[in-house]
Amino acid sequence: MQKISVKERIKNIPPVAYMLIVIIAVFSFLDPHYFSLSNFRNVLIQSTPLMIVAFGQTCIVLTQGTDLSLGAQVSFVTVFTVYLATHGIILEVAMVIAVLATMLIGAINGLIVAKGNIPPFIATYGMQNIVNSISLLLTAGSSIYFSSFTYRIVTETTIIGIPLMVWVAVLVFVIVWIVLNKTKFGTNIHGLGGNKEALVLAGINPVKCQIKTYAFAGLIAGIAGVITLCRVESGQPTVATGWEFQAVAATLLGGSSLREGKGGVTGTIFGVFLIQIIKNGLNVIGVQSIMQNAIIGSIVLAAIIIDAVVRIQAKE
């Protein structure tokens, strides 16, 4: 087996990791209370739902697509679960039904994209509006509630000092990493983005593969929805608005390519942390919320451009 040198390992670290160090240093300089264990624990907890969504989005990006309905699916799970629970379904059963529903939504997305030959961002944008409308109809436009101790179990249980929901994110990461790197399905996902013709010549049905990929992303979004529900303890039709774009940004920051089928979920972790650390830092130093989106957008855009330039130079 060929050994990878230390120099090569350092070279393979995504540029976003270095950006993270710089941004943490800047916020620590601006506020001495920023660099603390409790603050980083908060960042870890706040990152969990978006990180899970970003793992699903990474799978889609590897096929040269984007799923703009993932944020809506997360909101839908919070709403649909509470809606079912208030109509007599056991909460835990309602969670499973809601997650299965997002798998179905993902499969429909994949079917439309693959069979209809429609650009993914158009197909999933349409689905985003449909799912959002269903969530708003189920709640009459406001939050709905169902009291349960299950929420507390998920959010307050810790294992060796780390919250249970963070362990759930770790588990999802391990599953997605194994799927992408150790299974035939994962090879096909990379093939969809890298060379679809080669897949066809190898006897693989790209339509089935694309449907399975979108359904898999829907399943992951559903898990993020359950975690989000346990955090907010209510069904909120707009709780995950915009998460799909943040998930795309995190995926690209993590080094996954929209054109080549290259990348993976490991880099996505750094991308999610970059976004959450910027958000957290702006809150700590007291930047007004109306300014935060513009600042975050500018930093993320700059980071993506820097990342792309560094990678192009590395190839040359």
Which range best describes the helical content: under 10%, 10-25%, 25-40%, 40-55%, 55-70% or over 70%? over 70%
SSE order: HHHHHHHEEHHHHHHH
Strand content: under 5%
Oligomeric state of the chains present here: single chain
What class would the helix/strand composition place it in?
A: mainly alpha
**Strand order in space, largest sheet:** 1-2
Shape: globular
Radius of gyration: 20 Å
Low-confidence stretches are none
- Could you report the average pLDDT, rounded to the nearest whole number? 90
Helical element count?
Answer: 14
Total number of strands: 2
Please give the alpha-carbon distance between the first and last residues.
Answer: 27 Å
Characterize the biggest β-sheet: 2 strands, antiparallel
Structure description:
The protein is mostly helical and 316 residues long. The protein is built from 14 helices and 2 strands. It has a two-stranded antiparallel sheet with strand order 1-2. Helix 4 runs parallel beside helix 6 (120-139). The radius of gyration is 20 Å and the shape is globular. 42% of the residues are buried.
